[in-house]
Sequence to fold (189 residues):
Amino acid sequence: EWPGGIYASPTLAGSRPGANIAVTWAAMMSFGRDGYVSATREVIRGARYLIAGLEKIEGVEVMGSPVVSCVGWTSSTFNIYNMSSDLTKKGWNLAVLQFPAGIHIALTRRHMSPGVIDELLSDIRESAAVQMLNPGAAASGAAAMYGMAAQIPDRSIVVIFRKSSGNFTTVLDRTENADINIGALLFLS
Fold:
């Protein structure tokens, strides 16, 4: 019943292998507390900027009240999975959600590079405009598969799929090799 949708990992380590812990520790030693606090503030400012931009886009609604670095959005007007497909074609690898359907990004320091959030907002704005032309359009491609999985009434089928899938991968944010781990930032403040 996890609201993030289907998540399966073929390894015992899941999405948090030991290498990530070692890299996080090394980054913490390199940045120091002051560096992490500064980076955290920068990412939070970026998240607030993204939220403010999303709130101005017709057909797009921010999910919840994001306070740190994860920002999700949805639409009650059009199929959000179609927007996900559009953004993927533009090079964005954002995570899709179920219950409710949505898209989210976990912002990192890498996203704070000049113009990155503005480019994302521009691509979201462009996709929303296209979606608003035909808001009842059914999802297609990978988005259709993900949306279909959300409609499975017997969730035990998802467990069977997860167990039988030896090579299921997750979607990472656009800068999967970011040089800072926001999760570690939260423990330092």
Summary: Residues 161-189 have pLDDT under 50 and may be disordered. Helices lie at 18-54, 80-89, 116-133, 141-150, 156-164, 182-188. The longest helix spans residues 18-54.
